[in-house]
Amino acid sequence: MKPQRILTPLYITFTFLLFLSCQKKASNTIVPLNTKAEVAKLISVADRFYKNKKTDSAFFYYNKAKFICNPVTDTQNYVDIINDMATIQQNHGDFIGSESTVIEALPYLKSLKKPEHAWNTYVTLSNNYLNTYDYKNAILYNQKALTLKTASWQNLAAKKNIAVILMEEGKYAESLKIFLALLSKPEIKNDDEFYAKVLDNIGFCYFKINDLKNALSYFNQSIEIRQNKKRPFDLGKSYLHFAEFYKKSNPALAKKYMHLSYQQFSIINDVDERLASLKLIIENSSDKELKKHSLIYVSLVDSIFEVRQKAKNQFAKIKYDSKKDRDENLKLKTHKAENELQLERQKNRNIISYIIIAFSLGLILVLYFYLTSRGNKEKIEATYNSETRIAKKLHDELANDIYHTMAFAENKNLSIPENREQLLTNLDAIYSRTRDISKENTTIITDENYVLVLTEMITGFTTPNTNLVINELDVIIWNTIEKNTKVTIYRVLQELLVNMKKHSNATLVEINFKTLDKNVIINYTDNGSGININEIAFRNGLHNVENRILSIKGVIDIDSALGKGFKVFIKFPL
Question: Is residue 386 assigned to a domain?
Answer without folding.
Answer: yes
